[in-house]
Amino acid sequence: MLITTSYDPQPEQWEAALALSGQLKQLDGSQMAVRLVERKQFSLPRLRQRYSDSDIMLVSRERIEYYQEHQPVLFFHPSTAAIRIKRLINGEHDPLMELSAIQAGDRILDCTAGLGSDALVYSFATQGNGQVTALESRIIPYLVLKHGLGMYHSEVPGMDEAMRRIEVVQADHYDYLQKQPDNSYDIVYLDPMFRKPIHESSSISAIRFLADPRAVTELTILEARRVAKRVIILKEHRDSGEFARLGFAAVKRSTTKIAYGVITL
């Protein structure tokens, strides 16, 4: 993988690229060949050709971007979270927050963070008094999310603060749950890659090829039952058999293809 910057980088961009290179090498256990290269005036296709490497992580002034040939560029953006937060500000309802019975001061564990849309809404809804821990097992999405939450600036009141409060951890959710004390989180939330994908979802397309494709296991739910104090929520395709397989007795369906399964503790 190549690490580079946008054209004519500021010193802080180069420093960020250097730090990112070190993080990748550390997280990957040196299994990935990571090279920090100067952008100069090379286009991305020219860099690929010059260094015989198709994967590029680019550090710009506003964000980091991940490029892989024939795949959509991956970068952090709050996406639908910004719309949902605006609705909360206006006193409108959010189905996930209602199912969670979210309260100020809640501790939430998002086991499958992806690009953090639901974690961001949770963080905003706790009104600055709670804590959201967002787990992402895959290295590239983890770094894009962690840096994005720290760099992105929004004009939506309170959203920047909500982003900065989220703790992002690179971990497999089952391994992480095993290490947590009983009743240590009020809410445990799971939004895995759907067993029946929604291909028309533009927000998922950029991360689909990088995300962990594994299904949630029964052992994970057993650990979640121990760790969660109040509720476990699973987001899946409305026609999914995962709700029944994993013991989610209550399923709230909507007019979209998305549904939420709930285990109340």
From TrEMBL:
One of its GO terms (molecular function) is methyltransferase activity. SUPFAM superfamilies: S-adenosyl-L-methionine-dependent methyltransferases. InterPro entries: 16SrRNA_methylTrfase_J, SAM-dependent_MTases_sf. Keywords: Methyltransferase, Transferase. One of its GO terms (biological process) is methylation. Signal peptide: none annotated. This is Class I SAM-dependent methyltransferase. The lineage of its organism: Bacteria, Bacillati, Bacillota, Bacilli, Bacillales.
